Amino acid sequence: MSKAATLDATVKTNAGWVEGLTRGRHMAFYGIPYAAAPTGQGRFRAPKPAGAWAGVRQATEKGYAALQTPHFIPGFAASGPQDEDCLNLNVFTPAADGAKRPVMVWIHGGGFTHGAGYEPLYDGGPLAERGDLVVVSLNYRLGALGFLSIPEAGIPGNAGLLDQVAALKWVSDNIAAFGGDPDQVAIFGESAGSAAVACLVAMPAAKGLFRRAILQSGVGRAGPPEVAAKAADKLLAGLGLDRSQVVDLFDLPAAKILEAQASGGFGPGMGFGPTRDPVSLPQDPMTVVREGEAADIGLLIGSNRDEVKLFVPGRREPMTDEGLLAAVRGRLPKASEDQAKTLIDVYRASRETKGLPTDNLDLIDAVGSDLQFRIASTKFAAAQTAHRPAYLYLFTHVSPARRGALGACHALEMPFVFGTTKIEGQVNFAGAGPEVERLEGEIMDAWIAFARTGSPNHAGLPAWPAYGAESRQTMVFDTAASTVQSDPFGEERRALEALL
Length: 500
Known about the structure:
Elements: E1 5-13, E2 16-23, E3 26-33, E4 56-58, E5 88-93, E6 101-107, H1 125-131, E7 134-138, H2 143-147, H3 159-174, E8 180-190, H4 192-202, E9 212-216, H5 225-238, H6 254-263, H7 285-290, E10 298-304, H8 321-331, H9 337-353, H10 360-385, E11 390-395, H11 414-418, H12 427-430, H13 434-453, E12 473-477, E13 483-486, H14 490-497
Parallel strand pairs: 2-4, 6-7, 6-8, 8-9, 9-10, 10-11, 11-12
Antiparallel strand pairs: 1-2, 2-3, 3-5, 5-7, 12-13
């Protein structure tokens, strides 16, 4: 507990009293159970309600994150405690006074295999204070424990998404006691958390639990059942089991399942994640939005210009022209050699006119960033705009880390969203100085305004129009100046989409 925190924040939930911390101009409550421990016969299955407790429960320490393995990217894996009993959340509020403030519910990323809602990067205090709103962050099941799918054995899949629905139901039932308005909930997430937000938009069980959604660097899709079946068979084989022995999974130590997941190569995006299911997720999120079934949900979505640079090695061998051509064709199997060459020429010319690096490695990173993140974001926004105004952004601030080699990489916008650019470990990544502080305020206020009104417009930014399939108006967030541009990097987008 910091010297500035005091133990005098007490609130009654539907399961019992909790006591948190008063920190400056807000209260913080950590590790509140929103569902029962998903252990024993509850493993892999939909969460059950949390049991009540007697007396006052201390909510002053981090709850457990989901079980996960270490990861080579700093900050990717949970930095604190982990356990199978991980269904808990944190609440940050200016006051538990019945004021009916807007609520923002954060869903962390990490490829559906890693991450935790309690990370200092996601401290909801600065947002709560600046926006006079309530911020909630949560932990949910990951990897095989969260997304194993064996329907015939009563393991339908998507347990991790159903955890998020349970957390939203907890918010609906309890957030008024923390000064929040259950009818003014916005969900937001980054990377896999953003893909989860897209899935929640499409999930029947989540209908009516939130009004607005912010997707940062990830749309994602629900995988087909056959892919989930292959992942299940591979995991069972790694455990020395077959489908006739599925019942044994409920008695195995969780660590054994995690070990089999790790040894089987089930990393982020490699087998365990959202799956189409007749009950929990019957349609792909893009289909739901395109058909207008999410027209009641406000949407803010965007990506970072150089997303994939976070994932490439710090030291890379130079790429020849032949290597670049082969790499582009490997990512675009439908493209002929001449088409791939034309695409490379378009990207190189576009980047030269903007003063951006045009080394072959930079070009393949640009193509990869657009393929994995930006194209899906623009399509998702366009699909929603056909039914309701949506807002698109592009984040282009360059990290000072590795002498600028990371560019505007994946995850770089997060400290700007939460107002945590100055915490330990972020200054070298996010940068520092008046321009960084200005950009941090602009982004925080945009997210706050969107949560409050459904529009990210505020006095600190130029007027931000809704995205349209023709004008493609986009807010470009940058330390030099944030500007609205019509179809930024449009020549690259058009050239790439023609080959998809």
